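Morning F.,

Quick status update on the modeling queue. The single chain you submitted on Monday has been processed. Sequence for confirmation:
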Amino acid sequence: MSFTNMKGQIKNLALLLLLFSFLYCSAYSLLDRMIYYIPYTFIFYFILYVFVVLFGYIHMIILYQFVKRKRDHGEVDLKACKGPMILVQSCFFFIMCFTSLASYYCMVNKALSFLQYLIVPILILLVLLYIPWQLFATFEVLDGKKKPIHILKSSLGTIKNHYQSVFYSFLFVALIGVIYHGIMDVAFGIPMQFVPTSAVMDVMLKSNPFLTMFEFFGNVMDSVNLVLPVIVSFVYGVIMCVVLCFYYMFMICVYDEDIKL
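Structure tokens below.
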């Protein structure tokens, strides 16, 4: 707490993440309603692309607050980071989108169905890598790096060099998510579904702790049975925001070579 200057700041940082999460969920809920009225696939994916890039940049601004507090020196020109961040987030979007579409195409095409045995492990790997990969890439951008391919490659190198720290910290965060979905399944009969073809896009679009709550809240007037799931989902979102404060700061320490296993 002292080393990262987080002492006395957890409430402020958690509130910042909570406000960002609510903004994201509100925008995503609006987008989710709009996409059903989009007649062309290209327009649909273009809107998704703009959404991912926009909130990728906003997320960078949020992460900068953590970086600034931990390092406690210097200022970063966020306007100068805009171009590299857009390019990096664009690369992530096309990687995740291409693999998802390739998997779907091979799944519906019987002649190419055998390729699923190759693509599915890649999808699962991308699901596991996306969050730490995107975090390290953002830190690279905030450090003034500008070439997107170099940033992506360097970020993967950081994951490789610190795979134990990255794996165990992500496992802890994922475990909280699994416990939440387990409670939702046992208590309310709402199971967690994992389909690699869609999961690779979901981890990019839906990995927000309050998104499930927003989805339930939109239908709570139609079913009183959703009141308790909404409350549980809200509590989970608050807990996850606090956990993410420590996770983000831990990842910054890993990136700065302060933690070595």
